[in-house]
Structure formats: C-alpha cells, structure tokens
UniProtKB/TrEMBL annotation:
InterPro entries: Bac_transglu_N (IPR013589), Papain-like_cys_pep_sf (IPR038765), Transglutaminase-like (IPR002931)
Source species of the chain: Mesorhizobium retamae
Domain Transglutaminase-like: 157-221
Top-level taxon in the UniProt lineage: Bacteria
Name the UniProt record assigns to this protein: Transglutaminase family protein
Pfam family for this entry, one: Bact_transglu_N
C-alpha cells in the first residue's frame, strides 16, 4: 500500500523567542515493513544546527530559534510504500543492544497494577501471552483523548483506566519486560478509516519474541500493525521516540497546532 503523509507542527508565540532548541524525529526510514519513496522536511522560523542518527538509529535533527520569529513551523511530508507482515518486523538491528530494552524507565516502571496484569496472563507460548496481554491492556484502558498527558506513567494510566495510544504502549511495554521479553516504543502514523485529518501521530509497542524477532502490537486498537502503519522512530519509551521535543527561553505564551493527514495513493 502506498501512503501519502503530511504532518505539520506549528508553534506560535505572543512575544519574540529568546532562544529555543528543538529535537525533531520526523523522518521515517526504509526497512522490512516499508520503503520510503520520497520524504521532505521543511522548517520555517528556525535553522537546522545538526543532523545525526541517535542511539536507536532514529533520524534526528536539532533546530534552533533566536530572536524575532513569532511562529515556528515544521512540516514533514512524503510517500511510503508499506507491506503487511502480520506484525513481524524481524531480527534486532541497530546500535542499542537488545538487553537495553529489558530495562524499565520512569514512564514504564511497573507497580502492583501492571504486575497483577501479568499475573493474570496464565500459561502459553511467548506470542500467545503477548496477544493476550494486548487484549487485556485494551480492555483495561479505554481510549479517551485528553485524559492523560506526555508525563503520565504507565502505572497511573492503568489505574485511571483511560488514556491514549502512548499509555496503551507504555503499559504493554512494562508488562512485556516483566515477562522477560525486550520491549520498545514505536512512534509513527496510522491511516484511520473515515478520518482524514488527525491531531496527533500514532504509537504502538514491539516485543522481541524467540524465533521471530521484533513483533508489533497496537494495544490501543487491539491488532498487530499492518500495511496502514508507517514507523518513524523507536526507543525505550515515548521520550526516546517523541516527534518533537526541546527547550525554550522567554516569557511569551506558546500555542501549538498539529495537523496530520494519512491517505492511500
């Protein structure tokens, strides 16, 4: 499937920005489940300082702002050819060792709730237990935009019982690590049926399964990702893979607008 994607992020300020440094992870790469046919990154009101691959092999750009601009806009767009591999991404590659994805992070630290979730999985093969885990996470956390934020911990989201794809992914990752399986966070895009314009990118999780390698699980939708998904960045949790992050100096108020379209060509 060929998908056409446009992702615009715009920050506006009511006063000049003294200084800002933004880290962008907005450029997908080709791999087992996708081939990037074309991609462009346009930056308005800022300048690119450095371009590198981070420890998770994510295409990373640092851009800076200083002085006059009242609007900073970043638009990523292009076309990606995808294939359905039933969620199987394959063998581990990259700079980061596999054992790193067994370590919990502040966002994915397991508490009594997640330990109880794992305790209720019962017996089965690795892949069977992971699919059951995906269904349990979806049942326990109803999708409700605005009920959590970027700093919400996995244990908090499970206790609250509501959240977004970030929370589903963090709970799944935390539980998979308790099972002794390396797990990681994936940020990217999803072509949604009947939805033309989206206000946020998507996220899902992967666990490393014996004999298969990395296998994807989208607990928010209760499925393994197919050809409607485009992956952009990978990490131990949201902070490692977030599309845009950074720091800003100044007293001006900030307003954020995000517009994303994912359509089939």
């Amino acid at each position: 499937m060929r998908l056409k994607i446009s992702h615009r992020t715009e920050y506006s300020y009511d006063a000049p920005v003294s200084y800002a440094l933004q880290r962008l992870r907005l450029v997908p790469g080709s791999g087992p489940t996708q081939t990037v046919q074309s991609w462009a990154l346009q930056i308005e009101g800022a300048r690119e300082e450095v371009h590198f691959r981070d420890q998770f092999a994510n295409d990373t750009r640092l851009v800076s702002v200083e002085g006059e601009p009242h609007v900073i806009a970043v638009e990523a767009s292009g076309e990606v050819e995808t294939i359905d591999k039933a969620g199987v991404y394959g063998p581990h590659q990259g700079f980061a060792p596999l054992w790193l994805f067994l370590r919990e992070t502040p966002l994915t630290a397991a508490g009594e709730g997640i330990r109880g979730l794992v305790g209720g999985l019962g017996e089965g093969t690795e892949i069977e237990r992971l699919h059951k885990l995906m269904r349990l996470v979806r049942d326990r956390i109803s999708y409700q935009p605005g009920s959590t934020n970027a700093e919400t911990l996995a244990e908090e989201a499970l206790s609250l019982g509501t959240g977004v794809c970030q929370d589903h992914s963090h709970v799944f990752i935390s539980a998979a690590r308790l099972l002794g399986l390396p797990a990681r966070y994936i940020s990217g895009y999803l072509m949604m049926d009947g939805v033309l314009e989206q206000v946020a990118s998507h996220a899902w999780a992967e666990a490393h399964v014996t004999g298969l390698g990395w296998v994807s699980f989208d607990a928010a939708n209760g499925i393994s990702p197919d050809e409607r998904y485009v992956r952009v960045a990978t990490g131990r949790d949201y902070r490692d893979a977030m599309p845009v992050s950074g720091i800003r100096l100044g007293q001006g108020r900030e307003q954020l607008a995000v517009s994303i379209t994912v359509v089939q060509q």
